Amino acid sequence: MVRLNKIFVAMMCGTVICSTAFANNCDNEMYRRYNPDKCSTVSDTNTGLSFGTTVAVASGAVALIGGAVAMFGLSSGGSGSGSDTTIASTSKRSTSNLYIHPSISTYSTVGDDVDTVKLATATSGTEYTRNFDHYNEIRAGYSLARGYTGAGSTIAVLDSGKNTYHGGNVAYLAGGPVAPDANIVSYQVSDRNENFKSFYEIGNVIYSATRAGTNIFNASWSSARHFATDLSTRQQVQGLTHQNFINSLTNAVSANDAIFVWAAGNDYHDESSFLSAMPLYVPELRGNFVNVVAWDNQTNGLADFSNACGATKEFCITAPGTNLASPKTETTLDGTSFAAPIVSAAIAVLRQAFPYMKSSEITGVLFATARDLGVSGVDEIYGHGMLDLERATRPVGVALVPLSDGQTVSLSTARVSGTIGHQIQSQDIKFSFVDSFGRAFETKLNDNISVHNRGIGFERLRESNDRVATFGNIEIGFKTTDMFMSQGFLQTDSDNIISFIGFRDSFQIGNTELFYHTTFGTTNPRAASESMISGFRNVYTASAQIGAKYGDFRISIGTPDTIIGGNMHLHVPTGRDINGDYTFADHTIDLATRPSVEFNASYKFMTAGFVDNPYGTDEFYMLARTKLQF
Asked: pLDDT confidence of 76, banded at 50, 70, 90?
């Protein structure tokens, strides 16, 4: 699935049987091979499979044993250990089915969490800028800026070897700037002359890669004679390949939860190759398989050579596959062969970002976050749409906060009183939430709480409901407080009671009465059952007030109930471990705070107050309290 320049054609003519008179017309087979954009694809009845490139192998140059593969875009045939069912298809993409070439959808909110300097750095490297437009189409810069580089994954490139043109370029794109830290291992299923191993032998290669720990396989080769809808059973597929080959695929899935990424093929066809449709016949591969079609960034649509998703649409995705710059030569790369390894690299990125996710979950995220193309929803041309690493590495759907008892609560902004809100903010705590796929993301607690005044005016209005017993100048009682008011994922019980002992006295100086009032209290606030707060301990409060009264006038200054000691305990989710279990960290918040200062002026039953809050905004309130008799 590569368009090669004339230099490479000359090299190939030195290694394969070709005419010395290389006429520049479509009647010449070699010309057709290296100019697929100018000539229709040619099938060779002697072979049965092809790589996902736009370059074909010369007729008769590849003799395969037991079912083999032609490497660059030529149709090929083969048989497994059973009889060859030879279900041939000669139809190409229907000329009556006009393919719409829409522009890629855009989104108004992209990468809000990404530092612009990091994004610029991630997209300015030589390897990224080599294919700048292509990588920007899949928004790879955002995943790189978020720190995801594919580390921890091994991608097996089943190809012609890293030192060959095709295999080398595929291996490069499987890591490249998208997943630069992924471990790329090349396994030969063909030699540089495109002589492929039998399917039995290819199966052994896959077994070997599986034993080595591979969890991503890239196969940029396909069938150019047999397409997805040509077959319907596992037995038919086995007849065209080999039981050992099929078993090696299912073994990789069961042993390593591996994902296979397959090129759809370059046959201008409505359906993808039967090899890239394997889950249709082998159900064990469902959820662990991705079919890839090629996007043309010049026409903003499916590349003209690319097979469409067709019957594979539920596990098919679109990726850039034309005019990719090769790091090895001055040529450009065209074909689903080169779209596939970009998707393999993206999967390595997701495995690093979410190592606790199963492959079926990884592919589910890959598909759900693809940008829709063509007809709305999943369609037979583009499948789920364009690969999008920005969307795939940010939260999707409803955000939830996991709690230690297995519950989750919505991550709506928590409203907390300034009394405890400032103390929480001073700790600068980070915590994790999960999205609709159960993926854990880190955020700051400070960014998700809204600090509000506790409402001194309402507390004053409720003072008539306080329960107080007096013994001379001493009082003992209970009163409600809004100091611990909190809603959302930090919710506390609404009724917080302070038990207090108070001292009050007054002195008469002429017509003026001077007074003072102090209290010392203790409280045991309770967190709601669905809260990140796990409890409070040893919480003590104090208040003080002095003032003067002259007839019906009364003025005072004081500090309302203030926390002078005590702790609040948070049980904070921090992520998920490799087994998918939620992890937590405990934090202790010292609740001792600076007091507010309250000024009061009263006349008869009317009271006006001003509160100078050290945390939050200042308060002004007016209230009237009186009794009516009838």
From this structure: very low
Q: Which of 393, 279, 308 is nearest to 347 (CA)?
A: 393
Q: Identify the burial level of 50 via C-beta atoms within 10 angstroms of its C-beta, where 0-12 means exposed, 13-18 middle and 19 or more buried.
A: buried
Strand 414-417 relative to strand 449-452: parallel, antiparallel, unpaired? parallel
Pairing, β 50-51 against β 70-72: parallel
550 phi/psi in degrees, rounded to 5: -135, 105
Q: Considering only CA atoms, which of 33, 30, 38 is closest in space to residue 54?
A: 33
How does residue 374 score in pLDDT terms, banded at 50, 70 and 90? very high
Residue whose token pair is 């809808």: 229
Task: Find all residues with CB under 8 Å of 278, minimum gap 6, and list them.
Answer: 237, 249, 260, 262, 285, 289
Does residue 88 surpass a pLDDT of 80? no
* Signed CA dihedral, 276, 278, 283, 285: sign only: negative
Q: Taking each helix axis as running N to C, give the angle between helix 336-353 and helix 165-175, from 0 to 180 degrees, rounded to the nearest 10.
A: 30
3-state helix, strand, coil in the chain (%, to 5): 25, 30, 45
φ/ψ of residue 279, rounded to 5: -60, -20
Residue 430's contacts (CB-CB under 8 Å, 6 or more residues apart) are 442, 443, 444, 445, 574
355: tokens are 């190592």
Cβ-Cβ contacts under 8 Å for 98 (sequence gap 6 or more): none
131 burial (CB, 10 Å; 0-12 / 13-18 / 19+) is buried
Lowest pLDDT segment from 273-282, 427-436, 550-559, 616-625: 616-625
Question: Cα(first)–Cα(last) distance of the chain, in Å?
Answer: 95
Residue 50, pLDDT score: 59
What string of DSSP letters covers 161-200? -TTSHHHHHHHHHHHTTTSTTSEEEEEESB-TT--BPPHH
Which tokens go with 5? 């320049």
Question: Sign of the CA dihedral 271, 277, 283, 289?
Answer: negative
Helix (H) or strand (E) holding 366: helix 359-368
- Band (pLDDT 50/70/90 cuts) for residue 318 is very high
Residues linked to residue 480 through DSSP beta bridges, in sequence order: 497
Instruction: Provide CB contacts within 8 A for 339, sequence distance 6+.
Output: 52, 263, 292, 293, 294, 295, 306, 318, 319, 320, 321
Q: How many CB atoms within 10 Å of residue 386?
A: 21
Q: Are 450 and 415 in contact (CB under 8 A)?
A: yes
What type of residue sits at position 386?
M
Strand bridging mode 430-434 / 440-444: antiparallel
Quick one: tokens of 12?
């190939």
pLDDT more than 90, % of the chain: 64
Amino acid 147: pLDDT: 95
Q: Say whether pLDDT at 41 is over 50.
A: no
Residue 53 per-residue DSSP state: S
Report how far apart, in Å, the C-alpha atoms of 191 and of each of 165, 194, 530 are: 11, 5, 62
Going by pLDDT thresholds of 50, 70 and 90, the confidence category of residue 333 is very high
Is the distance from CB of 153 to CB of 348 less than 8 angstroms? yes
C-alpha to C-alpha distance for 222 and 294, rounded to whole angstroms: 14
User: For residue 349, what pLDDT is reported?
Assistant: 98
